[in-house]
Amino acid sequence: MTKPRVNSALIRRINTGRLFHIIRQNAGISQQQLSHVSGIDPATISIIINNLEAAGIVRRVIDAPTGRAGRPTSALSIDARAGYLAGIGIEPDAIRIVLATIDGARCADLIVPGSLDPEAAREAARAGLASALRMVRARRSTLLGVGIALPGLVSLDGQVVFAPNLGWRDLDFAAGLRQSLKCPIRLENDVKAAALAEHLFGASRDITDFVYVMGRSGIGGGLHLMGELYRGPHGLAGEIGHMKIVPGGRLCGCGGHGCFEAYASERAILAELAAQGHPARDVDAVLAACRDGDKTVLAVLAEAGAHLGLGLANLINIMSPRRVVLGGSLARLAPFLLPAAARALDENALAAIRHDVELVVSVMGDHAAPMGGIALALQQFLDDPPVRLGHPRESGRRTK
């Protein structure tokens, strides 16, 4: 019987990613501490850190001599001057663009009008990204990668399978941008991307098992299980918005009836208010009405909250995660959704499972999807770095 071959390149790539994120979250860490935290042997760490340093990704600062015996210690940090990553969040009516350094620090963000026409949306994203680079006085050559997050089914190879709220089907949205931007681009479902950002940059860095639930035009789920994002065999796992919670109920954008997102998403809430003749047409107006004690709005949110709680109870019973994170519009409306949601959750979730599950609100706000794009771009960068050893990428000037 032959022994299975060890994919050393894959192991090196995984270890490189682990060390990068440990340094990113612990600026000034030493190689000795890095070995202790990561569990990776010192010899492997030395090789990886030397490579990252030669590529201009990691910066090493040597302590001043103390006169004591032994080698001086060195502090490691991610060199933000290496270049920029861009995150693009696509919605039917708006495209949000965030520019960040490779350590994930935001340095520019803007919103441009969206479009249901794919070519127009591509051009708007390209022009918006050019504006973001001008905001930090950076050349396009400093762009190391782009991540695109959009509401819809996205396959493992980055194809848009079906985005009902955009009206897109079987589309390679990133192809045209790759040709013009000349850098790696990774595209993913917006909620999966936001879940990745929640783990890398948000409040769930140390949580290995959580479900991220985000709602705007629809409701999607990011399943972060056993320490990594679960995409399923075709990349389509996590479409919790189309879980049926009211048999034969409201028509959903997917063509089905009674879906979760037809009752608890921002679009569903606004549609119900419009049906009742209420003038609120966006979340800001809904929140203002809540603060004024508007009984119609509060009743609609209580009903949506009850459906939200029922849907979350089903997820918790199936997944048994450590945490459920509410993002997007659900996070903004949480103060008025959660009372009814918590009651429905307690009534429908198995008590033994519910007891150990935290229900929290993400602090990423409207930046969740584009920061998900940053997370995707960073993941792509670490999987296949465009920087070649000994040739650090020249960065543009940064502004405060």
TrEMBL record:
Pfam family, one: HTH_24
Lineage top rank: taxon: Bacteria
InterPro entries associated with the record: ATPase_NBD, ROK, WH-like_DNA-bd_sf, WH_DNA-bd_sf
Family: Belongs to the ROK (NagC/XylR) family.
This protein's name: ROK family protein
Organism, as annotated: Acidiphilium iwatense
Classification of source organism: Bacteria, Pseudomonadati, Pseudomonadota, Alphaproteobacteria, Acetobacterales
